[in-house]
Amino acid sequence: MSAEIFEVPPDVTIQLEADSQQSRVINLRSAGGFRFDVAFVGLGYVGLPTALAFHAARRQVLGFDVSSERLAAIEAGRVDLLDSDRERLHRALGEDDFTLTDDVGSLAEAQAVIIAVPTPVDEYQLPDLAILRSACASVVANAVQGQIIILTSTSYVGSTQEMLVAPLAARGFTIGEDIHVAFSPERIDPGNDRHAHEDVARVVGGATPGCARAAMAALGAYVVNLFPVSSTEVAEMTKLFENTFRAVNIALANELAQISRALKIDVAEVMTAAATKPFGFMAFMPGPGVGGHCIPCDPHYLLWQLRRKRLATPIIEQTMQSIASRPLRVVDRVIEVLSLAGRGINEARVLVLGVAYKPDVQDVRESPAVEIITGLRALGAIVDFHDPLVEVLRLPGGESMKSVADPRQCEADLVLVHTLHQCLDVSWLEDTPLILDTSYRLRELPQCFAL
User: What is the distance between the alpha carbons of residues 256 and 150, in angstroms, rounded to a whole number?
Assistant: First the structure.
């Protein structure tokens, strides 16, 4: 299947052969004398896999990151990637058309520059824009005529205009003529190999129609489906809506889990039955909370922006409050389950099984496990964790915990099942006295309690 080909502005030299995904050729460098087809600003969970997808499409790729430690980890292969992306990395590191650098000045040598940096929230659930502002300022400072600049980091509506378009115009560029700016939100699901990067549609909103066409031509070097929208603001809102939609439905699933337990109904069975409906329903399973930098963070960028407009958003606000309180609900449930077994929480031994924020990744950003462990320890529990993908877990205040090598040796009063990786052996749980299953996947075990 080939990418749809869009007309591009005359100042951008494009040659496309669309007979197949493998045969498509795009030459963005010939007109401007650029050394690289594309540069990535930020080589994290989004930037690195996308850079590897471009390289696999035979692009000349520059990867820039401010962290020398991150660059060293990439060069050594010590990064959390899908097996397919790990193979791509192994091939890329041995070739001349894949370059890693911490020299920000090198960005001027790339025809297209894609910004893919984190956009977290702080302890007060307010957007922390420091990384994004710094990245955009660096790109603007090193921008040259003929470049295509694409922001892919999730942010508030208007961020592309404020952080890229306006400062580039202030430098004397004419947007849509001698430089092109667009927003195209990332759509990467870490740990999920069911959707190849090339197959996931990219929404593209340009600062001008010419900007959109140029950005689509650049992204079309690797992606199959491109969906243009009328502006950068529409593209920004699209990403915020996608993750707010997920947040609302996860909060609803968590609430349904509590209702089902009160009514002595298996919520997993309810979800499975409801999912047989082929229209008007989408299954979301409950859990111990949500982690990563999408669902726990992105809706807060929208809420923050709307507060300035005095616009009430009760559904989203209640959703985020519900999600934020979920880990503490897990702590309360641990106390209840132990109490049912005649055991108090003080000095009870609790083993947390899996601490990554989702299965099959090493990522612990915003993981509910951190707050759960902290809450249990504050009540006097003795807490260990076992996760074959996470060796060390850092807690608030700087303290670190190491994963126990053999969970069978812990002699836990209760095992709290948090994240079930595919590589995780759970056969030994049959001999465990108490289990609190927040994954809702072990309900066949008689000593297992639902959250």
Answer: 40
Long-range pairs of 432-438 with CB within 8 A, sequence gap ≥ 24: 433/341, 434/337, 434/338, 434/341, 436/330, 436/333, 436/334, 436/337, 438/287, 438/288, 438/330
Altogether, the residues listed in the chain come to a count of: 451
Facing residues of 110 across strands?
A: 36
Q: Which residue type, as a one-letter code, is found at position 270?
A: V
pLDDT at 282 over 80: yes
Catalytic residue among 136, 294, 297, 448: 294
294 catalytic per annotation: yes
- Does 326 have pLDDT greater than 50? yes
Is pTM beyond 0.85 here? Answer: yes
Answer yes or no: is 20 within a domain.
no
Q: What is the pLDDT of residues 42-63, one digit of tens each?
A: 999 999 999 999 999 999 999 9
Count of CA atoms in the C-beta half-sphere (13 A) of 68: 1
Q: Tell me, yes or no, whether 25 lies in a domain.
A: no
- Residue numbers of the domain that contains 288: 245-450
Helix and strand numbers (H, E) in the chain are 12, 15
Q: Among residues 186, 206, 230, which one ends one of the domains?
A: 230
252/356 same-domain check:
yes
Residue 173 within a domain: yes
Q: Examine residue 197 and state whether it is found in any structural domain, yes or no.
A: yes
Question: What integer best gives the mean pLDDT of the chain?
Answer: 91
Total domains in the fold of the chain: 2
Q: Are residues 217 and 273 in the same domain?
A: no
